[in-house]
Protein 1
Amino acid sequence: MKTYTARPGEVPREWYVVDAEGQVLGRLATKIATILRGKHKTRFTPHVDTGDFVIVVNASKVILTGRKMEQKLYHRYSGYPGGLKSSTAGDLLKNDPERLFKHAVHGMLPKNRLSRRLIKKLKVYSGPEHPHSAQLPRPLPDHI
């Protein structure tokens, strides 16, 4: 019996849509990272992109538990002296919920070149509308 190794061209891709309204950010981000990576498929191969596309709607209505809204900080650095900007998770959720969601999912992906390719398959929208209806996305199953 030989071990199966997936090739990039032979993996079928699905599109899933997730409604983030009322869901906890970290728990939802782990499910999305699993789908993006392809670990829910029997054809999973660690070094090949076998994952599916994920569309997240209502990202601005996600929940953060505990006191993360006031205490959790996100930093960005311009590269210049004095260019370090910090903002709390609450400010980021109010001003740029897409960036907050992508940051949470990106932290749960492997730290290599493959993760930069995987994060491009995540589409995040703060409202209920998305422009990907032509791809016929299905709702994310609960068992994943």
Protein 2
Amino acid sequence: MKLLLRSFVLLALTALLSSCGYNTIQQKDEAVKAAWSQVINVYQRRADLVPNLVATVKGYATHEQQVLTEVTEARAKVGSLTVNADDEQSLKNFQAAQGQLQGALSHLMAVSEAYPDLKANQNFLELQAQLEGTENRISVERQRYIAAVQDYNTYIRSFPQVIVAKIFGYQVKPNFTVENEAAISTAPKVDFGNPAAPSAQPPQQPAQ
């Protein structure tokens, strides 16, 4: 009799949790984790391209040490971060560091335009193509992660899931901030030192 009662209670609890969205919360939480793993993978792929890219550019653009240092330091900062995607400040720090690296790489690629021999180098062309492809993948995976977090947050804030979420400790997750998107996606302008146009000479006074 006790065994039958326990079985009934377990079935009732299972049915209650299912109807209140517990299982769906689990599924959406796992979807966010999977999307985050993909984000990390594509960001790591970009970081892995940096040493070879810097070495290749360095062989041709010996006078661009400041730009090369900027990229190297930005890459080192990214590598030193330990990110917790469930912590808002940690995610902001991660996004800022990745934005700095992307900006530094954009600067480096802009500088390369001043070196025809570098632009014709096969290794550089391959690395450039890989970087462009990786940037595209980063954009795609970021959007997927944003969508997964939005879907999860919307679900656990709805009734009656909000009650179940609070009982089991599921909280709203932070997301990538929109205000940093424009800065991340905009390449810096580079001045290659073009000589300024000569200033106009003052008109000569007529001889007296």
Protein 3
Amino acid sequence: MLTPRQGLGGPPTGAAPVPMQGARLLAPSLPGKFIGLWNNYRASAERNGWVAPDHPLWFLKPATSVVGQGAQVTIPAAAGRVIFEGELGLVIGRTCRNEGPETAETAIFGHTCINDLTSLDVLNAVPAFPQWARAKGFDGFGVIGPVIATGLDWRRLTIRTLVNGRERQAYPAADMIYSPAEIVSRLSFDMTLQAGDVIAVGTSLGVRPVKPGDVVAVSIEGIGAVEVTLMDTPVV
């Protein structure tokens, strides 16, 4: 697992290996910043009548929202209607600040799967102030995993989301408005990106509501699938 203070691609730590059987996978990175993008796919922009943004539209998810493969995610009673958002994630491998796309691309260590769970009811509860941070910031609403894959061509990837084993979302990463290099470059002028930071590059068509009891998996060939089970709020 990568923490914000560690570099990527360095020598192994020397820790003893752990058998996969019976192990619980944590999120492969504990990001200092978990950044999400909105309106970054042409198909969804066209379907909804959105204008392509002049700059990536982003929000932050808190570190406490992060969970990994096999987690149980409790949907708080206050969340109301919740949707999944299957996404491709970029994992930053070094400090990146005020860089152009050519060098910013080298700051991307690898890719992972993201499920950016979102409460629609919270997001739209106050018309004058969409609550992006709260709607996307509940514990467990930032699913990352199962691994960080390197050496992939993002243009050839398809993001798929399955609910209870049934495919509900499938779209090509190549439909992005801003490419990964452009995203990292633009964001590096807004904030310093650091090793371990994660950027969810946005979702496209096919997002749907989910409910307690559903098993939701985001799958990308070459990375694998990250699956969580949604749980109801315990009765006190």
